[in-house]
Design brief:
Blueprint: H1 4-13, H2 20-28, H3 34-49, E1 52-62, H4 91-103, E2 108-113, H5 120-137, E3 140-144, H6 150-158, E4 163-165, H7 184-196, E5 200-202, E6 205-207, H8 213-225, E7 230-235, H9 252-265, E8 270-273, H10 277-281, E9 294-297, H11 308-317, E10 321-322, H12 334-337, H13 349-357
Parallel strand pairs: 1-2, 1-9, 1-10, 2-3, 3-4, 4-5, 6-7, 7-8, 8-9
The structure holds iron/sulfur cluster.
Length: about 350
């Protein structure tokens, strides 16, 4: 056991393929010291990214109204979650949100639209928005709009898009347990279209949906084979009303193991702690920055997350630094640091004396 961690670090630093049995052990070996695993994954992360953390922010530019039946998604036709549904946002509003994201030091502005695939009209509108963001704002962009073919991928590339997101979500074997209206191959084809168009791809998975360790490892190796440079790792958020609700599979340590395994299989990829970070990693969030070098601020598609100043503080407290310029005020008063917001948090001396003498 003693040498296993350093062997894995050496393999990853050599860009050598981690044996599949070792990837499975990272998830399932109950005797493994997970903190040592995280430290070893941290060595790989430091070699490629130093102490930098890329902060991403999602903008839901179109919400709900989706004809697909992804069981984990509050926007799907099979979800009863009370979701605010709206068509594609106004172009000026999207531009303004991109400007604000840049001012806040956000590394990449991620636009997400619900739906199976963009219509030709929607694709043209998105291309116009992308070119305006490139010319008028100058922030890195990522777009997630469902299935994309070669023609649409080329249109987005020409409009200045940097990255196209399309998550594999789960393994080929497990896909029909979570969705029936499209296939794993449909998702793979979108990533291949992005690659042919010269777009960077972003693709990851959602864990905690009843999958096995082998399913998670399958996705990590598939993404390596596709040379995906950006991998969001989501942890299923239990949203009441969704068919896939809670498999009770995730603990903070298991989430940490999963992130470490992704780091060792994809040593040079941007590994992002994505949806479910707060609720599933809980007190291990800052430790997760050892395998991961990227995260979201200000929430996800259907749920709130920690607001940015709290996340920035967590990053700084753990000895990491935000990648990019951050114009948010970083100086806080002592009361703000200790989160004393009213007198309820201050012990009343008289009460304390009474308590001692009783
Ligand atoms: S994940 Fe995308 S395609 Fe699936 S239901 Fe949600 S919005 Fe629709």
């Amino acid at each position: 056991m003693k040498d296993r961690f350093s062997d894995w670090t050496r393999l990853a630093l050599d860009d050598a393929l981690l044996p599949r049995a070792d990837a499975l052990a990272m998830l399932g070996d109950v005797d493994m010291d997970v903190l040592r695993l995280a430290a070893a994954a941290g060595d790989v992360r430091m070699a490629h990214f130093g102490r930098k953390v890329k902060v991403h922010q999602i903008n839901n530019i179109k919400n709900g109204l989706c004809p697909e039946d992804c069981g984990y998604c509050a926007q799907s036709k099979v979800s009863d979650a009370p979701l605010k549904r709206y068509p594609t946002k106004d172009e000026e509003a999207i531009l303004q949100e991109a400007r604000e994201a840049k001012q806040r030091g956000v590394y990449r502005y991620c636009m997400v639209a619900s739906g199976r695939a963009p219509t030709p009209r929607e694709a043209t509108q998105l291309a116009r928005i992308l070119s305006r963001i490139r010319d008028e704002v100058g922030i890195r962009t990522c777009l997630s709009v469902g299935l994309v073919d070669d023609q649409t991928a080329r249109l987005f590339k020409e409009a200045g898009l940097d990255r196209l997101n399309h998550n594999l979500n789960t393994s080929r074997c497990h896909t029909d347990k979570i969705v029936s209206t499209h296939t794993y191959q449909d998702r793979l084809d979108t990533l291949l279209a992005a690659k042919r168009a010269g777009l960077e791809s972003c693709s990851g998975m959602i864990t905690g949906m009843g999958e096995s360790d082998a399913d998670i490892v399958d996705v990590a190796y598939e993404l390596r084979g596709l040379e995906v440079p950006s991998i969001p790792v989501n942890f299923l958020i239990p949203i009441a009303g969704n068919p896939l609700y809670d498999f009770n599979q995730l603990s903070p340590l298991r989430c940490l193991r999963i992130l470490c395994m992704f780091r060792f299989v994809n040593p040079r990829a941007e590994i992002r702690i994505a949806g479910g970070r707060e609720g599933h990693l809980r007190g291990l969030q800052s430790l997760a920055l050892y395998p991961a070098n990227s995260l979201f601020v200000d929430g996800y598609l259907a749920t709130r997350g920690d607001e940015k100043l709290k996340v920035y503080k967590m990053i700084e407290d753990a000895g990491f630094e935000i990648d990019g310029e951050c114009s948010e005020p970083q100086t806080q008063t002592a009361a703000e640091r200790y989160q004393i917001d009213d007198n309820r948090n201050i012990m009343n001396p008289k009460t304390a004396v009474v308590a001692e003498s009783s």
